[in-house]
Amino acid sequence: MKSLYKTFSNPDTCLLDLSASTIESAFEQTIRHLVECKLIAPAAEAQIVEGLVHREKTSSTAIGHSLSTPHYYDDSMIDQMVVFVRLHDALNLGAPDHLATRYLFILLGPRSATSDHLDTLALIVKLMSDHDFRYDLSVAESPDDLKAAMEQSIERSRPTTITPKQIPDGLTRTGRFGGGMIGDLKRRLPYYWSDFRDGMNAKSIASVLFLYFACLAPTVTFGGVMSAETGGAMGAVEMITTTALCGIVYAIFSGQPLIILGGTGPLLVFTAILYELCQQFQVPFLPTFFWVGLWTSMLTILFALTDAGCLMRYFTRFTDEIFAALISFIFIYKALESLIAIFNDLDVNQHHDTALLSLLLALGTFYIAITLQGMRRSRYMLPWMREFLADFGPTIALAAMTLVAFRLHEVDLDVLPAPDRWETTNGRSWLVDPFAVPLWVRFAALGPALVGSILVFLDQNITARLVNATDNQLKKGSAYHWDLALVGMLIGVCSTFGLPWTVAATVRSLNHVRSLATIEESVGSGGERRDRILRVRENRITGLAIHLMIGASLLLLPLLKNIPMAVLYGLFLFMGIVSMRGNQFFERLSLWTMEPSLYPATHYTRRVPISMVHLFSLIQLVCLLVLWTVKESPLGILFPLFIAMLVPIRISLDAIFKPAYLDALDADEIPETEETHWT
To answer: How far apart are the first and last CA of the chain?
Structure first.
């Protein structure tokens, strides 16, 4: 430990951002620097460099975690020393985890220093296994920063008293009316201004550009599908407007600004079912939607004031996976259902060429988007090119297939319903007349509102739980109750103007977190690569800028109305397929069709009998099928209640599975040694 303190206390033994294209160049520059600082005799320079290079050629000193420990011992050196070098660009030194090396701890001294350096090497390895320490090394600007990083890492590694499993941050019931919201404000207000300062960096610019397109594409898609599901009462204009306005307000006033609000699959289904009920009872949709929204707003705010968000501590991976699977299937089903409808509903101006071209446009959009997303793992082109194509894949796919449709303009296609200027899709007034429905509807709306508020509660908080997951390394705390109340207020405002509701959008929110993260790649024992988040730049600037740009997109309405609906259905299919990735439920289902001897060496296949793994997956599948059946039945409006029922079902599994099995199958975090066959 003394050797490292000495290293980090001396600017001469710390080289930050050394530019070197080879390890030989790194050694030459480092030893020359030590000679200039009079730490090594000039006569020994060539010998030491040659010794380090020879040792590296004999056997690489790269040991993983982007770390290499070159060493050279000779009795011509009197003093022992450790030199820290952070390379500007990482070098491939053949590390066992296949990751490029950026950090060098060069150990030098007489042969008698070998035993002391072994202790130092053990400490280096221990420090480098700390995610936070590696992040601090990457951003350190001086030796003082390096020394502080080491001290903090040592402090974190000190033994602590084992305590029972802690309740997640912000989910402890206060027992006071509004106590949870007050606690959220106390937790987050100290970081409010830093949320703006932390957004002033280049990573935020890249995040805004990526998320703008990543949010605009599904916003337009949801708007197009919403128009078809509500008879034009709500469409792309309303969806873009509500996404922009709610997103701006949320970015400024929310407690967790990394969450992105938007339309979601469950909300789309709820709105479509509500429209069908209005048609059955022959009552106007938008005034009914207003009263349902008003009641939903009040109930959601009441949930926030009574600390109902604390119930989220009972939600686990079991419930998250089923909910995520439901969203995936909603996307896929809506895409396929809409494409089939094109074949069934050809009119006098539309023939089989319309149906065929629609199918080709949808499949082409899906293929381009899914292919470009995979470019991130490609070996071709430069890294920034691969990242660009992967990040903007859905937008490129939408633009490309829209151009194809424009070129084949002779074929009559359904396009996105949108006016030429900023006005409602069907030309109605922006302000909804709440008194255009009978008195009984105003009170009967409380029934759907109760279900809707439960759906909003689950949709918002499950996404918030995923964003605040330990794996994401967030430091500023959560705000479940305050954010739920804010969403409730926004729902009330949106209902007044006949705008679709917005809640936390899972895929977009997690992409927002990832786009702001400093990520380290790790490799499993089978060669599978997995990204690990070291730190996230938590800020409000990106969310604010993203939604300001989405609002500015309303100036592009004449262009948006040229987008074929088939292209949007292709994007829906893409979002559904992509959202299945990373869902352990689908990974475990795929084991049913796999040869047992070829099962991947995951943490649950190693620790849980395969029969128990299959039983756990079967129970989840049955729950998902029940949810889907209820959603498609005349009782579809009640499907959020069945989502809530997943919690007691999960609790009942304690009587079937051993605690050790559930710890593996229902773990909050995936172990770092995890392997996966799902790509």
So the answer is: 42
pLDDT tens, position by position, 138-165: 888 888 888 888 888 888 777 654 344 5
- SS3 (DSSP) at 475: coil
Hey, what's the torsion of the CAs at 374, 379, 382, 387, to 10 degrees? Answer: 20
- Paired strand residues for 81: 108
DSSP tag of 419: -
**Element (H or E) spanning 535, and its range?**
strand 529-536
Backbone phi and psi for residue 571, each to the nearest 5 degrees, phi listed first: -65, -35
Residue 300 in contact with residue 453, Cβ under 8 Å?
yes
CA 604 to chain centre: 23
Amino acid occupying residue 423: E
Residue 103 exposure: Cα atoms within 13 Å on the Cβ side: 21
Nearest CA to 544 out of 241, 258, 180, 216 is that of 258
pLDDT at 213 over 80: no
CB atoms within 10 A of CB 438: 13
Give me 617's structure tokens.
């997956």
Q: What is the mean pLDDT of residues 289-296?
A: 96
Q: Which residues pair with 91 in a beta bridge?
A: 101
Closest by CA to 468, choosing from 208, 156, 168, 182, is: 168
Residue 554 exposure: Cα atoms within 13 Å on the Cβ side:
19
Structure tokens at 108: 């030098």
Mean pLDDT score, 441-457: 93
Element (H, E) at 673: none
Long-range contacts of 662-669 (CB under 8 A, 24+ apart): 664/603, 664/604, 664/607, 664/608, 665/317, 665/318, 665/604, 665/608, 665/612, 665/613, 665/616, 666/316, 666/317, 666/318, 667/317, 667/603, 668/316, 668/317, 668/469, 668/470, 669/469, 669/470, 669/471
Nearest to 307 by CA among 498, 74, 103, 485: 485
pLDDT exceeds cutoff 90 at 210? no
The contacts of residue 157 (CB under 8 Å, 6+ apart) are 126, 130
Beta bridge partners of 101: 91
How large is the average pLDDT for residues 61-81? 84
Q: What pLDDT does 159 receive?
A: 62
Are 471 and 672 contacting, i.e. CB atoms less than 8 angstroms apart? Answer: no
Q: Which of 98-112, 140-154, 475-489, 643-657 has the highest mean pLDDT?
A: 475-489
**CA–CA separation, 391 and 384 (whole Å):** 10
Beta-bridge partner residues of 73: 109
Instruction: Pull the structure tokens for residue 587.
Output: 């990974």
Distance CA 643, CA 655 (A): 21
pLDDT at 302 over 90: yes
Do 472 and 284 contact (CB within 8 A), yes or no? Answer: no
CA gap 520, 467 in Å, rounded: 18
Using left for φ > 0, alpha for ψ between -120 and 50, and beta otherwise, residue 72 falls in beta
Contact between 639 and 630 (Cβ < 8 Å): yes
Q: What is the pLDDT of residue 569?
A: 87
Phi, psi of 513 (to 5 degrees): -60, -45
| pLDDT of amino acid 447 | 92
CA gap 291, 433 in Å, rounded: 10
133: confidence class by pLDDT, cuts 50, 70, 90:
confident
Closest CA to 105 of 89, 76, 88, 125: 125
